[in-house]
Amino acid sequence: MLTACLLAAAGAAFAQGSGQMRIVVAFPPGGPVDFVARVLAEGLAKELGQSVIVENRPGANGGIAAQAVAKSAPDGTTLCLSSAGAMAMNPALYNNLSYDVQRDFAPVSLVVNNVEVLVVNPANRANSAAELVAQSKLKPDPVPIASSGIGSMPHLAMELFADSSGAKLIHVPYKGAAPAITDVMGGQVSGFFGDVPGVIGFIRGGKLKAIGIAAPVRHPLLRDVRTLDEQGIRGVESNNWYALFAAAKTPPARVAEINAAVRAVLASDAYRKRLVDSGAEPAPGTPAELAALVKTDGAKWGRIIRDKKIVGE
To answer: Which option is the CATH number for 2-114+240-307: 3.60.40.10, 3.40.190.150, 3.30.450.20, 3.40.50.620?
Structure first.
């Protein structure tokens, strides 16, 4: 009881003296990470009793935003909402990374899980991932599959998919998800692995066709879309989670305060519904659980990056 009281008192002291909080996002406004950040910022402002703004710093697969937070004051007023890229992929993608994931950050909480879904143009005859694989083996040229960039989650999901299925694919990297999705809809490329929140609107609108979920279970918004496992294509699970990190040496009491606030926001029916309706799956956890996830995914994606000799741009 005494420990809880001390933590609460310490947290209140930090909040009173911290002023404005910033959530730095590694992507431009309008995308799924930005959407989650703005929902979270609104909820955290109420929970913590201080203003919370979202600052967009795109670039380098999340590295620019991560570096900004790594170099910020360790007081919990500047946080990074990062996808898996900056924390679990970049260390293997870049030889001269400007930050060290283990040294420079204090994990705060996982926020949402975002599984990958394989989408194609609705005119494509393939109604499943297995059918797309079969198509690829009959064609003289490999099937072009877009990604949001070299070393991105869509790229690595495609590599896993090709290895597992034996599909004849060629990687076509874009500068972000938006132009990649546009070209799938336009027929310039055949498919794309995307975060469900980033493509669900196009699927609902009939502009994209979902043919496989890269997760152990079906997605609640896409109940009719079979997982790749169900289609006999195993080992392609790809979760582009979003999580909050503070600068290293942020006081544990401040981290605990923010973690508790995140849990409260994600437990709120109103905020939770907005995230679920977008396709994201709220999944708060402890700082220790997030640290373990970063290590596990870092090892998984790092192995694939090294095996495929992928180098970040």
So the answer is: 3.40.190.150
